[in-house]
Amino acid sequence: MTDCPWCGEVLEVWVEGDGEGTVLQDCDVCCRPCVLSITWGARGPSVSAQRE
C-alpha cells in the first residue's frame, strides 16, 4: 500500500510474483492517475506513487 500523491488516500496495490517496474493506476477516491513504481527487496515489494 502507498498514499495517493493527489489526495493522500491509501492506494491498495496488488503485486504479483516478482513483478517490477511501473504501472499506471487511478485513485479509487479522486480518480486521478498515479504512476506506481514497484521494486523488490529482501523484505518483499516496495511501492511508491507519483503524479502522472
Detailed description of the structure:
There is one protein chain. 0% of the residues lie in helices and 52% in strands. It has 52 residues and is mainly beta. It has one domain (2-51). A three-stranded antiparallel sheet has the order 3-4-5, with no helix packed on it. Strands 1-2 form a two-stranded antiparallel sheet. Strand 3 and strand 4 (33-41) form a beta hairpin. The two termini are 18 Å apart.
Give the tags:
single chain, 52 residues, mainly beta, 3-stranded antiparallel sheet, two-stranded antiparallel ribbon, elongated
Q: Would you spell out the secondary-structure blueprint of this structure?
A:
Elements: E1 2-3, E2 10-11, E3 21-26, E4 33-41, E5 44-51
Antiparallel strand pairs: 1-2, 3-4, 4-5
How many beta-strand segments? 5
The CA-CA distance between the termini, in Å, is 18 Å
**Uncertain spans, ≥5 residues at pLDDT below 50?**
none
Number of domains: 1
Q: What structural class do the secondary elements suggest?
A: mainly beta
Largest sheet: 3 strands, antiparallel
Summarize the structure in short:
This protein has strands spanning 2-3, 10-11, 21-26, 33-41, 44-51. With 52 residues, the protein is mostly beta strands.
